[in-house]
Design brief:
alpha/beta
């Protein structure tokens, strides 16, 4: 198999959509389809289910995705070594960040980085804190950014200035704009991020400091993204704890209302593998972030 086939497979697997993947990596849909078909035929293994117009990874495809990402990461690392030896600031940086960081905090920094170092290509994947730790630990991300602390002995972490969690509700909710006592918090209902989310972990830790255990909360929904949580709260599904970076435009627009419940500031964490050498491009990005 070729690196190009792996690159196409990863793009399709991450989007589970042939056309969007082809557009993202600037090839035709027919070329993407041919590369996937060639892989499946060569190894007599089905990597995707074709369900109507949709595609989904098979169990074999999910196992192969982790290996394909790792191979591409090592290829990119080898390329960076040669660029460093040549004294060039070039190559590809693979980043993995949790949702709030990837969607709100990191983009302006990446823009500044690209302006300063136009020869470096940046690839960013998004997941929750647990997925960030796995990506850096397994080698298919050079640098990880997470909202929650990471307990992984293979990784070196550094805390940087982050955000603050706030509790939000629909403007029609009875808690809108007022102080809420600890006992009221247990009445709910709550809309929460999924287990493994840094936002969820930090919020539950803060509640324990107020004498409220997670098991006492009435959780109406668990949703996998900030956008889904905010949409459910706007519809009146309950209260939620989200980043002030996410909440600010919605509060300004009047589509969400703030609940007066002081929560601590939280740092963001930058993660690198302890045993992998650092390239000039990684060092430059870390200097900018820190």
């Amino acid at each position: 198999m070729t690196l190009e086939q792996l690159r196409i497979f990863v793009a399709v697997a991450e989007r589970e959509h042939m056309t969007r993947a082809a557009e993202a990596i600037h090839i035709t849909q027919s070329a993407a389809s041919a590369a996937i078909a060639a892989l499946e035929a060569r190894y007599d293994t089905r990597l995707f289910h074709r369900i109507g117009r949709r595609i989904e990874l098979t169990d074999a495809g999910r196992l192969f995705l982790s290996e394909a990402r790792a191979v591409l990461a090592r290829s990119a690392a080898a390329e960076r070594v040669l660029h460093d030896l040549a004294g060039c600031m070039a190559g590809t940086l693979s980043l993995f960040a949790s949702q709030t960081i990837a969607n709100y905090w990191l983009p302006p920094l990446l823009h500044r980085f690209r302006v300063a170092y136009p020869g470096v290509s940046v690839q960013l994947a998004i997941g929750n804190t647990e997925e960030v730790a796995a990506a850096v630990s397994e080698g298919f991300a050079d640098i990880g950014f997470a909202e929650g602390n990471i307990d992984n002995p293979a990784l070196r972490l550094k805390a940087v200035k982050g955000d603050r969690l706030v509790v939000v509700v629909s403007p029609r909710h009875e808690w809108s704009g007022r102080n809420v006592a600890a006992e009221e918090l247990m009445q709910g209902p709550w809309v929460m991020r999924e287990p493994g989310s840094g936002t969820r972990a930090i919020f539950l830790d803060a509640l324990r400091g107020l004498g409220v255990e997670a098991t006492s909360l009435k959780v109406a929904m668990e949703l996998p993204s900030n956008e889904a949580v905010c949409a459910a709260v706007r519809a009146g599904a309950g209260a939620a704890a989200i980043s002030d970076l996410v909440a600010e435009p919605l509060l300004s627009a009047g589509t969400l209302a703030l609940v007066s419940l002081p929560l601590p500031e939280r740092p963001f964490y930058v993660a690198r593998h302890k045993e992998r050498s650092i390239s000039r491009a990684e060092r430059a990005l870390l200097d900018l972030v820190e």
